[in-house]
Specification:
alpha/beta; Rossmann fold; 8 helices
């Protein structure tokens, strides 16, 4: 039987974790396996890394331009992370939600706090924990993107990031990646089915009643 098309409002789906706990990997898995969710493309003042694409991974801007966007209230959230600034443009997100499309956010706890104030019921927050501190450090070294000094800095900040776990709606311990993927997908599907996110249900139920 084909899926019935009931009008719904999109949701903002946040994944947060200390660096190296797996949120980016889980985000990619959602995007690859679900055509109804798109990644929120942030603006950032940090330099472009090898392989990154302007407008796909980030919008890379100067600190001056970033400040102007903040002053014009064009960002849903913004934060300074490891000496660089990141923010979420409001316009594309609001358009997607109104069209019934979900938007995925790979952001830290600071951004999640700001989205909580701005988004209300549109927001679903998931925090990803590593199974242990040792595993977290091993993952940071294994991905070989940062120097030992940078890894040490990220580990030093991990405790502060993890301390915000209780501010989230869901918490996943990423000990097994495939299990974590299934858990994230299950949360997304369940949240989509909440009655308040399906404004078209009233008309759908009316059609059933009138057809009886």
């Amino acid at each position: 039987m084909p899926q019935l098309d009931v009008q719904r409002r999109g949701l903002m789906f946040v994944l947060s974790s200390p660096s190296g706990a797996g949120k980016s990997t889980l985000a990619r898995s959602l995007l690859e396996g679900d055509g109804e969710i798109t990644m929120s493309v942030s603006v950032t003042t940090r330099p472009m890394r090898p392989g990154e694409v302007e407008g796909k991974d980030y919008y890379f801007v100067s600190r001056e331009d970033f400040g102007l966007m903040v002053n014009r209230d064009e960002l849903l959230e913004h934060a300074k992370v490891f000496d660089h600034y990141y923010g979420t443009p409001a316009g594309p997100v609001e358009d997607a939600l109104a069209e019934g499309r979900d938007v995925l956010f790979d952001i830290d706890w600071q951004g999640a706090q700001q989205l909580t104030q701005a988004a209300g019921d549109d927001l679903v927050k998931v925090f990803i924990l590593p199974p242990s501190r040792q595993t977290l450090e091993e993952r940071l070294f294994t991905r070989a993107q940062d120097s030992a000094e940078v890894v040490a800095g990220r580990m030093a900040k991990a405790n502060d990031e993890i301390s915000h776990w209780a501010e989230y709606d869901y918490v996943i311990i990423n000990a097994d990646l495939e299990i974590a993927k299934r858990q994230v997908r299950g949360i997304l599907e369940s949240e989509r089915l909440k009655r308040r996110r399906q404004p078209g249900l009233a008309d759908f139920v009316k059609q059933i009643q009138e057809g009886l």
